[in-house]
Amino acid sequence: MIRNLLCISLLGGLCLMGRSAIAAPESHDPIKITLNDWTGELITAHIMGDILKKAGYNIDYVPADYLAQFSGMENGDLTVAPEVWATTAQEALQAAVKTGKVEDLGSSGMQAREEWWFPEYMKEKCPGLPNWEALKKCGEVFSTPETDPKGRYLGGPSTWGGHDEERIEALDLPFEVVHAGTDAALFAELKSAYERKAPIILWIYTPHWVPIKYKGEFVEFPRYEPGCYEDPGWGINKDAKYDCGKPYGPIWKAVWSGMKDKWPGAYAIIKNYKFDNKTMGELDARVDLNGEKVEDVAQDWVNKHEDVWKAWLSK
Amino acid sequence: MKKASALPAGVVFGKPVNLRHLPWLIIVILSVILAELPRTVFPRWVQKYPTGWRLSLADWISAFMHWLTVDAHLGPLTVSGFTRALSFLLDLPLQLASMVLATGVLKGQGSEAVMLFPPVPWFALIIAIAALSWTLRGWRLAVGMTIGFLYLAVFGQWTSAMVTLASVLVAALLSAAGGLALGLLCVRSATFGRLLSPLLDVAQTMPVFAYLLPMLILFGFGPVSAMIATVIYAIPPMVRVTVVAIQGVPDELRSLGSMTGCTRRQMTWRILLPTALPGLMVGVNQVIMLSLNVVIIASMIGAGGLGWDVLGALRRLDIGGGLEAGLAITVLAVMLDRFAQALVPDARRSGPSGSRSHHRVIAGALALAGLLWIAAALWPAIAHYPESARLSTGPFWNDLVSWINIHFHDPLDVIKTFMLLHVLMPVKRFMLALPWPWVVTVVTLAGLWMGGIRLALTVGLMCGFMAVVGLWQPAMITLYLCGVSVVIAMLLGVPVGVIATQRPWLMKSVEVFIDTLQTLPAFVYLIPIVMLFRVGDFTAMIGIVLYAIAPAIRYTAHGISHVPESLIEAGTMTGCTRGQILRRIRLPHALPDMLLGLNQTILLALSMLVITALVGTRDLGQVTYAALSKADVGQGVVAGLCVAFIGMISDRFIRQAIRQPGS
Asked: Which residue of B has its CA nearest to A35?
């Protein structure tokens, strides 16, 4: 009997939760979530926003540059940066955390992968791919007048780091790095080459729509271990660091450190937020390939996965 | 900027090489030898500026900014508290504008906000603006404005465009008013003018990225910071134009004013400003164009709007979408400019205003617009342009670029390879091989020759600065990239300017073309260029040429068409052919104007560096961009100063050349 009563009251509680909020929000000031300029981040931002809204919080979305957003968070002008990639913004995040005004809320569960990537049709022209050793003989296949006789590898913006020059040196690859200034330029070149089935090898990252839309593979370098980047004696080349592939890195969430006191509940939700690459890839594709709206895709996920995100609230 | 209009014809062109050019010749030959010598000939410190001698200016600036934003006090207030208060004040007009145009009257904030009253619906705004335009300048302007706004509505750009319009409107008003005030102060006090002038130079040439970070720290992340950045970028031409226009008021009018006993205020408001008004409107035009130029960068720090749409579309490689949003920026620029120009009473072509029936029509139209606005508040469904009636040409543009890419890639590639191997790469190698002490010496000597000790010191110090802060190599790459682009822009622009002046119909279409190029965000056409020519210096060069060619054309055309008729008649009477008139009379006479055009072309080329950094150049633009990504305030400012100094060095030389015709 008592158990039944408990059940009923619990159910009633759940009903109430569904209607309004779990608990009254600590502050009605809007929590400002940044919108960066790639689809995956927009989806994450809107999913977080929708969940926070259901928990009764007031949300504001602010379009912000990926790198400029950190100084916005340091001032408290922005509250949440939903996706901070270990692979691209580690330095910026560390610098921001050091000021004491930005807090790293840990991994979102998604793993960023970035590596040399080639379209599938290049396998014919450079047999042996995706094994990296095939590249040793393929310099000419990928060469352009500026780099001839070496191959041209299109790297990410130089701000992304990545140690590709050192990798080429350490693995003795006949390649030269050309840096794209933004990823828009990076993918523009891929699109152009793909349309003409022209040779190209470049830096691609996931989760992203490109590996979904274009067929191709990542080059398989010797697998990354921390020792590879720190100890020259590690790996094939005994005298050089970076004789391996790139590290996989988590995608973090970062918030303004004042959030913890101002909206403790929302802070906990962001902290508990977990996602995975596969789901994100699917949502990404719905937006970029099927032309659905980011808001609708995010809303749809939130509506269908109540059990998932409810767990983040209670903790 | 006095024009040497008394320049005797035929002095410059067709003159035999005389001894005065000998030093230049020697310098060129010596430079080539120095660049070709094996590097090991020189001591180490000549090859590369030693790291040990480097001035850690960047670190000092970072430390200073930290002190300024955290510890510094203005009386009881911290500096950042003060700037935050200022930013709160500046936010008020911005909020008002966006309330009317974009967001409506809101209660509450964020997602809890409730709209109490909607923003102006599109049809009401069109009716009101069309009616106003009609009274100001007649039906032509009215039709033009209507078409412009319809474009925004039909192509689904309305909401973003209104966000952008609100912020640009306020920024342009602030720049115009502030520029006017500063300009008046410069006229009143020569000392103030001298102090302000280098600051204006820096503001005009320093890449926006360089001061974005300090700005965000002081004024907070959001539309206000974006607006302040816009004002800093757009205000210099307004100040300059004001000074020139006010000084150009005839002395007779001034003495008339003092004779009739004007007070200083009356003199300013009743005599100087009205007389200088046509000149001042040139400044307003520049302010509007420049404000819309930074829409993209402003959107990166919280302004949102069309700039954000452009960036987002291009990241998805939706070239058509980027183009449509970009064109919306152009449309806004043209409409704002035409409307602002129409506000000035034009003696030659008065509109139909004045008669009573016209007043009645206007009142009726405005009342109708107001009623429609209220109607939109009562039935929100009608307020938005129906989604089903929207048009998009996006797929067409995407397909077009793909088609060109597939069918014309190879011939285009041949051109590119030729340019790279025979022009770009040799010049780059040459510039990088020059030892830095030599370059600094040559620049200083040139200053001494052309303008004396003051000029020599100014340019020599600026040039040395780049070595001392350890940015010599990116500075040389900047010089090479901009140098080649400017030469190409002049080679293309001057002939186009000359030909266009002979044929008025051609001038019209050329003007439309360069207006579009100047206001369309460069990123929109850079991405298709990347698809055709790959990432690299060639792509950056095309981008810079496209953006910087406008003044080359405009100033040439202006110079050529303003040659006094009497000179041309004299030429015709002495039996000159058309070609001879062009070569012997028109071109020499237009030379000062063309040099001003060159000056502007260089400044525009430098301001494009920030954008080309986004397609992978390795110059100073890239350094500022990288500094932004590492939150390194000092490095960004120092690299930005280097860009500004390159611009100022070339500016000083060109001005000197204009002052001494024939040298």
From this structure: B302
